[in-house]
Amino acid sequence: xxxxxxxRLLGEVDDRYxxxxxxxxxxPYQRLKWGGGLLVAIAAGFMLFTSNVWNxxxxxxxxxxxxxxxxxxxxxxxxxxxxxxMMDMTEDELFSKWNPVVVRGTVTDIRHIEIDFxxxxxxxxxxxxxxxxxxxxxxxxxxxxxxxxxxIKETGQTTDASVISHVKQxxxxxxxxxxxxxxxxWEQNDATLRLKDIADYGFPDGERYLFLDTPNGxxxxxxxxxxxxxxxxxxxxxxxxxxxxxx
Length: 247
Description:
By secondary structure, this protein is of the alpha+beta class. The protein has five helices and eleven strands, in the order αααβαββββββββββα.
């Protein structure tokens, strides 16, 4: 008998018979079946929760057509240096081409993301920087900047690794990220990602736009800054930045 027929018939049955039928006790095997099903559901839910399906997903605007962006564990990350922006530039051009803000701050958080461009996967890192000083740009002291960077892979901190790969939570540095607007779009495999969907700022590359105070001393791409060849501390870089942008 079809469901709609059953419902019509129920409308013609005295209410007390319906109430009596609802008082019938479930059989034991029904309770056991329900309990077993619950355990299976819990186990399946745990497996899904621990899989990549349930990693935190970053919501994207309608301007982005990439399939998804998920937060992932660093152990899953593979890294590639962004070479498209590694063209030769003078010291002055590093400050003028992308018009970066220049701030001093401390890295308070690092997250790693997996981007799905219609089946092609790319990894990036999102660095949160708590700003303690500003040398250039419309940034407030005390603000947290979320900056997109080349993927920070577990490298063992070898000396030949890129500068960005040495970034650690709690590390202080001077950073030169560029502010994103709607024109910054990553296109790959017939899909797009508006970079502002994942961060308000980004490093054009992982070598020349940051100066790090590491346990092994000051680290930056020295070949890119002839004026800073002799400096050995972050404070000396700060003095140079303040002089440069006070003129």
